[in-house]
Specification:
With 361 residues, this protein is α+β, with helices and mostly antiparallel strands. The protein is built from eleven helices and 14 strands.
Length: 361
């Protein structure tokens, strides 16, 4: 649950809401008690910003630890240090990922696993077929087990009516002690939901004073690659500046936007020509960095790259369609020489791209 634990980060002038939760990060043999920061666009800060898929790799590697070995050293930075003795963790890697997925949905104002379950229950109550019951049961079991007890928001009944309803007469819940569901208990569960529906109908519709929460699509990372030729379906690789999508600027044709960027960065016309015909993006960059830069390049380069990206997508509508499928996602550009920068699709149809930070080289 997010509660009052709200934070944010800013990317390209956009405020991206987030929250945090405690976790252990294992570094150098010590388990550090720290905070994971989770953001609406799907990025997670576990001492570096990563996508959810990369976060799962961190879990598999043990960097984010859910297993706490007996005798292991632990630290809360400058607050305290200790040694684990018969530790017990309430989390597994799968459970932690499931909870984080729910958190990202909540930050975006989307139904999380609990919301999807309650919607499936409403469908079943409106049309009580076994098919609809099975769908409701599957949705209920998709709620992280650590959160099922809170699904109804009723700390008196907890999830008892819910697990009984989706199990059905004669069925079994995820709690073995419940035993087979008796008809009497099932009828009580049905009555609970009928009364709950009456409560909901009596409440006036409430609209947030500040309007709906802005939704963010999951972040996308453009990993560093070495493309040699264009392909029919490049996917997100086609968004990389070094992807071999030729563009014409003025009267000059360049093998990629990156070639054009490096050629335009230098003052010498002969070097520009050599860069424009370089076999690879790496060769183009090497030639450019060895030559004298154009005067004022540090101030002009972002505007130049913006114009080159617009030319790329104007001249390659198929790649523009790929870019538009990213919706409002944060696009992380991973470049071996320059680290990471971010790109966001503009909501204005006449402005497809807006680079963040340095030029997206």
């Amino acid at each position: 649950m997010i509660g009052n634990k709200t934070t944010h980060r800013t990317a390209d002038g956009v405020r991206i809401p987030g929250t945090w939760r405690h976790a252990f990060i294992r570094n150098g043999g010590t388990h550090f008690l720290t905070d994971l920061f989770i953001y609406a666009d799907g990025l997670i800060d576990c001492w570096e910003l990563v996508t959810l898929e990369e976060f799962q790799d961190k879990l598999r590697s043990g960097w984010v630890a859910t297993t706490l070995p007996d005798g292991a050293e632990a630290s809360a930075f400058e607050l305290a240090s200790w040694t684990f003795s018969e530790p017990h963790s309430y989390l597994t890697p799968d459970l932690l990922v499931a909870e984080i997925r729910d958190t990202i949905d909540q930050l975006n104002g989307r139904p999380d696993s609990t919301g999807r379950c309650l919607a499936a229950v409403d469908t079943f109550l409106a049309d009580r077929t076994e098919e609809n019951r099975a769908a409701a049961r599957n949705a209920f079991l998709a709620i992280p087990i650590s959160r099922r007890r809170y699904a109804l928001g009723d700390m008196d009944s907890k999830d008892w009516p819910l697990r009984v309803l989706v199990a059905g007469p004669g069925g079994e819940t995820y709690i073995p002690a419940d035993g087979p569901i008796m008809q009497e208990n099932y009828d009580r569960a049905v009555a609970y939901f009928e009364e709950r529906a009456r409560w909901a109908a009596e409440r006036a519709a409430r609209v947030p004073a500040d309007g709906p929460v802005i939704s963010f699509a999951p972040a996308i990372k453009l990993y560093h690659t070495y493309p040699s030729k264009s392909v029919d379906a490049p996917g997100f690789r086609g968004l990389r500046n070094d992807y071999p999508a030729p563009i014409v600027v003025g009267e000059v044709s360049y093998p990629s936007a990156a070639h054009a960027y490096w050629a335009l960065s230098v003052a010498d016309l002969e070097v520009q020509t050599a860069i424009a015909t370089a076999e690879t993006h790496a060769d183009a960059r090497k030639s450019a960095t060895a030559a004298a830069q154009r005067e004022g390049w540090q101030h002009a380069r972002t505007a130049v790259m913006t114009a080159l990206l617009r030319a790329k997508y104007d001249q390659h509508p198929d790649l523009a369609e790929i870019l538009l499928t990213t919706d409002d996602a944060t696009v992380i550009y991973d470049d071996g020489a320059f680290g990471e920068t971010h790109l966001r699709v503009s909501p204005d149809s006449d402005q497809l791209t807006r680079p963040i930070g340095h030029a997206l080289t």
